[in-house]
Write the C-alpha cells for this entry.
Amino acid sequence: MTKQNEQKGGKLIVFSAPSGSGKTTIVRHLLGVKELNLEFSVSATSRAPRGEEKHGIDYYFLSLEDFKRKMKADEFLEWEEVYRDNFYGTLYSEVERIWAMGKNVIFDIDVVGGLRIKKKYRERTLAVFVKPPSVEELKIRLKKRSTESEEKINIRIAKASVEMATAPRFDFIIENDNLEHALEEAEKLVAEHIAKPIFSDVREEE
Ligand code: 5GP
C-alpha cells in the first residue's frame, strides 16, 4: 500500500466498537462466509499476550521500543495509544500481505483507528460501528469474560462511553441487542460493499 500501488488491492472493512460490544463475534462470523473473501488484519500491539493469545494470530506482539521504532519509520497505516503505554496499530505490510492473497481486509479495531482508515481510503473502506445494548450490559459482558482485573474493566467502561459518541461518524451502526440479527445485517452490508466498484481512491492526508 505504497503510493505507487495503492490503486490496486481489495476492499477494507472496519468493525469498531467499545470492547465487549460483540464486534469480535461478528468479525469471526464474517470470516467464515467464503463468498466475502475476507482475511483478518492482525494488528501490532505493545501490550503483553493474554491467556491463549498467539503472536501472528491474535496480534503481532512487539516490545514498546520496537513499536515506537516502527512508528517513527512510518510503517503504520494507523496507530493509537489505546490505553496508557499500550499501543495498537495496523502495519502497511499487513494490508499488503492480505491484498497479495487477492482478499479483502477486515479490521477489528478501536474507533479512532477505524475512522482514520476511513478517512485515508474513503471509497474502498466500509466503516461499521457495533453498538452494545447499553453500558450496563457492557459491564456484565466484560465481567463474564473475566480475563482482566476489576480496575482494567472499569477503564474499558469509561472509554466505552466516549467511544459511543463517535458512532454517527461511521457509515453504518449495527445495534447488537440480538446477535442473530446483527450477524445478518453485517453480512448484508459487507456483501453490498464488496460488490461496489472503486472509481477513484483518493488518499486524503490527515
Ligand atoms: P484488546 O487489548 O482488548 O485486545 O484491545 C483493546 C482495544 O484496542 C480494542 O478496542 C481493539 O479494537 C483496539 N485495537 C486492536 N487493534 C488495533 C489497531 O490496530 N489499531 C487501533 N487503533 N486499535 C486497535
